[in-house]
């Protein structure tokens, strides 16, 4: 983890969450489409079906439940980012003020 946290609304990157909600939904659409098509062609073309199933697993970053967990995490991060309370200059300790702009520097100790 970076000892210098310059953004108060930054959240750590998780295994399942995406950077944005649109990206996550596109990955879900690709995964569901590939999985449904893989099931539909499994009898006549089993090897193509396996290839499509692997594409689906890559798009889901695991299984459909993993994708759902990531959807919840991504939505929570977006909600948290948009509803973060504004901070006062003295709330997080030392700060530097330059040309009317406030920069909050927080140092984490280990």
Task: Summarize, please.
The protein has helices at 21-40, 46-60, 64-82; strands at residues 4-5, 95-98, 101-104, 106-107. It is mainly alpha-helical and 110 residues long.
Fold and architecture overview:
The chain has three helices and four strands, in the order βαααβββ. The protein is mainly alpha-helical. A two-stranded antiparallel sheet has the order 1-4. It has a two-stranded antiparallel sheet with strand order 2-3. Strand 2 and strand 3 form a beta hairpin. Helix 1 (21-40) packs antiparallel against helix 2 and helix 1 runs antiparallel to helix 3.
Question: What's the structural blueprint in terms of helices and strands?
Answer:
Layout: E1 4-5, H1 21-40, H2 46-60, H3 64-82, E2 95-98, E3 101-104, E4 106-107
Antiparallel strand pairs: 1-4, 2-3
Helix pairs in contact: 1-2, 1-3
